[in-house]
Structure formats: structure tokens, C-alpha cells
Amino acid sequence: xxxxxxxxxxxxxxxxxxxxxxxxxxxxxxxxxxxxxxxxxxxxxxxxxxxxxxxxxxxxxxxxxxxxxxxxxxxxxxxxxxxxxxxxxxxxxxxxxxxxxxxxxxxxxxxxxxxxxxxxxxxxxxxxxxxxxxxxxxxxxxxxxxxxxxxxxxxxxxxxxxxxxxxxxxxxxxxxxxxxxxxxxxxxxxxxxxxxxxxxxxxxxxxxxxxxxxxxxxxxxxxxxxxxxxxxxxxxxxxxxxxxxxxxxx
Amino acid sequence: xxxxxxxxxxxxxxxxxxxxxxxxxxxxxxxxxxxxxxxxxxxxxxxxxxxxxxxxxxxxxxxxxxxxxxxxxxxxxxxxxxxxxxxxxxxxxxxxxxxxxxxxxxxxxxxxxxxxxxxxxxxxxxxxxxxxxxxxxxxxxxxxxxxxxxxxxxxxxxxxxxxxxxxxxxxxxxxxxxxxxxxxxxxxxxxxxxx
Lengths: 250, 195
What we know:
The complex is a heterodimer. Chain A is α+β, with helices and mostly antiparallel strands.
């Protein structure tokens, strides 16, 4: 194997701090398997990195513990490695638990798509109840066909797009999204109506189907409200506990 | 905080190490109680590390949960002959954090926050909570050369690759790589790691 400058030993520092690009990381890991001196040095440098970590200690919010303990009750553990040799203290493969991401469909939803999604929802969700405010079918239709129905298309900051159709006379809105970032099982998206001095929870978004989320209906809309979206614990929150990833002036 | 509390104090790092190793062994056999004790002991280290790299509070919480799920899932993979439990935990936390930040923030946003490592260093210096380990790390970081300190803090506390650090500082990548290594070696000696 040829190493262009810098040679492998000097990469021990970046390796121990996860500061190599993935290809170099893999090459250096292979090198470690053959270089016991390097492996020993990396082990020591990882201890130093551990001290840098300890020095950053800061207690997490209490809710994380409950969530972690609840989720791990359902998570299967890896069996011990049989035969011993697994070539160094390896971290786990980092992508294994996080749910697969929805491919970022560059779908800009249109009113037509909302209607189509609504139609799918009408036909496909009979007897299936959405966690969002239980917008019965007529509620969606009422908003979509209201004389003052107004549509807003917007991008969601971490990825995806959202379409809102609102009617002030109906005091409701229909929300649909495409390509929202997949969340871990213990998180969900929650809608908020923001205005009049407080944030009102407006429903949890259901799991996406084929990259499409919703449509869902939010009720209790007032003139001057804004619509917010945030990531919350899976049971939802009374008040937003994280930064809004979307805030639309309606 | 209930239980024995978070890891603090340099002597206690090694004392707690064997205790943590035992707890990991129990966790590997499905002991939820042992896992809860591990959580209590290492959660501040995990969350603090993740938050420093990831920045976004909500994402940091998510990543912290992912880290603990990984610890639970892979406890059987911990091998005490390859390093201490806290180094293993820190490695999982840091890797997850940099993976996430590299995936999420390849945008202008990341470039915008490409300030100098003074920020990262100041965070170590200014953190309100008094903690013996933090004091020692502060002290030892001060004993590095400016370049060593910059490359170490940008890589570890900001999650930059060494090539990114080279770009940020306008220094050849080979130099950055070498300074990272000798910076860590100097920290190792100053902190008395492995002695």
C-alpha cells in the first residue's frame, strides 16, 4: 500500500479524534490491524479524547433518560463476539439504529397534490385514525373547497417541503408535507398555532407513507396566527421543546 | 443526581473505570438496572460532548439518545483490553455527533460558524460548572502551542476533519495531522493518561 504524505503514523491523531474522511478512516483502520505500535498509540490518544469529552460534561434534560430507558426495553442487543479477535476497540456501526432516511424527494407539493393526498387519505384511511387532531374527511374537504381557501407552499429547513391550505372562515387548515426528515422512533413532528401570546399544540403528524406526510387538519385557527412545526417527544408536548423547523405566517 | 453521580475528578476516572466495565458486562447480558446506572454516570459526558459538536439543542438530544441506544445494543462489544469504558463511550458519542453534523451541516451554515478555535477553547475555559477534569484539561490545553490547541479543539469540539481544519487555518494538511498527533501526545503526558 502506498501512503502519500502524511504517512500513517501521523494520522493517529486525526483518527483518534474522528477527524479523517471515511475513506482514510477505513484505510487507517486496516493499517492499525497490522501495526501494533500504532494500535497502542491510538488507544492512548483515544483515552485523551475521552478526557476532552469528560471536560465537556453537561447534564442532559431529564426527559432523555426516561426515553432512553423506555426505548432500550425494545432494542435487541448484539451477541458477544465469539472467538475474541475483533481487531481493536471498535465503535458500533453508527447507522444501524437510526431509521432509514426517506430519500429527499424534491417534491414541491401543489394544491393538486394536497387534494390527491386527501383523496388517498379518504380512501385509504377508513378506520385508521390519525394521531393529529382527528380531522374527519369532511373537515379536509371543507377547507379545500372553502371560498377563502389559500394555499402556501414552503420548504422545511432540515429537508422536505410543506403545503398548507387554510381557511379563516372555517378556522382550520390542512397541512401536508413531502420528504420530511425521518425521525427516531421516540420523536415526532408536532404542529403549532403560534399567536395571541401563546403556542397552541395543533396536532402530531402521522408517520409518512411513501415520503408523504398527512394531510392533517388543524383546528382553532385565528387571524394573525402563524403555523409552526417542531420535533417533539413521541407523545407530543404541551409547549414546543425544540426550535421550530418551520414557521409560516398565515 | 441520584446514584454515584457523573464522572468527575481525575483519580475517580480510573476508579470508576473498573466499576463501569462491570456495569457494561452486566448490561451486555440485558441488565436494565446496570444500564441505568451507566446512564447516570456518563450522561453528562455524552450529552456535553454531543452538544458541543452538534450545537443544535434538539439534535443534540436526539443524538444523545442514539448514543445510549448504541451503548445498550453493543455493550457486548466493549473490550477492556482495548481501552477504558469512558473512552469507549466518548468514542461512540463523538462519532455519532460528527457523523450527524457532517451529514446535516454541509451547507453554508457550517461555513458561517467556521470561526476560530478561540470559541471552542473559551467554552472549555468559561464553562460555569466547576469540575476537576475540566480544570486539568484547561490547564493542559494552555500548555500546547497555539497551533496544536487550535487543531485539537477544532477537530474534537467542532467535528471538523483534519483537511477541513487545514482549509480553515490555511495550513498544510500534513502539518495539521502532525500537530493533532503531537498535541494529543502532549495532552496525554500532561493529563497523565495511561500512567
